[in-house]
Amino acid sequence: MTHIAAPETAELLDIARRIAREAGEQVIKSRVDAKISATKSSAVDIVTQNDLAAERHLRERIAQLRPDDGILGEEEDDVIGTSGVTWVLDPIDGTVNYLYGLPHYGVSVAAVAGTPTPALWKPIAGAVYDGSGVMWSAGAGMGATRDDAPLVRTVGPDLAGTLLATGFQYVPERRVRQGEIVTRMLAEVRDIRRMGAASIDLCLVAAGQLDAYYEHGLHAWDFAAGALIATEAGLRVSGIDGGPATERLLIVAAEDRWVALRDALVQAGADKTWDS
Ligand code: IPD
Ligand code: CA
Ligand code: CA
What SS3 state is found at 265? Predict the structure, then answer.
């Protein structure tokens, strides 16, 4: 495992915030011109020219500032680095909201150390610049902030009082299975929200504007930054087995509420969703 010293954490956090803001300002400014330029896993999984431009900007800046680092970004090929640090980029998380002019979207930038896969990496820094111009960020061991205000979230309501967020994949068969789980969870919690940008859902749990969140089938870039922000706020972010969150399933809740939420999700069938 690559060892990252504290000064490097601060440097990576500073870069994450700078480039997320630059790309975010560009994305907000160009929103009126957003048009679908391609579809991906299904007809509703879209990419706009602005997603591509934002990722290009992020990659150019990383190449200038940290030329030895790797890059794992949604819209272009992986870059293998030599420094042990990899940047994990979602140029627009919440592209459908973006296209429709809903402000729940953001640019998500994270720096991780070690093998660049969620089960193995060590998150170092993360920044999410959202469509309302809010900067959410965290550095490992440095805490989390919303703009410059610290985020601290160590307690949450019981399951029946929980405002629970989730999201859905773009492939219809998977959505149907996700819908079955959500139907069962509806009876257990205060209510459900599907806001449309995983990175920001995680930040909102860190801010106490949602109580908890889970989602199956995320990509690493959807949650790399947001999961660090939630963790640094004091929340527990884990997979169904209590180990690291992965693309298979991520569950976030206050530390003392996490097990009850996980158990309810298991009852609802969440442990079986991607088995076949
Ligand atoms: C999507 C959003 C959405 C989540 C999907 C993601 P995209 O990312 O985060 O909330 O439910 O699983 O793919 O496609 O807007 O970058
Ligand atoms: Ca995304
Ligand atoms: Ca995206």
Answer: helix
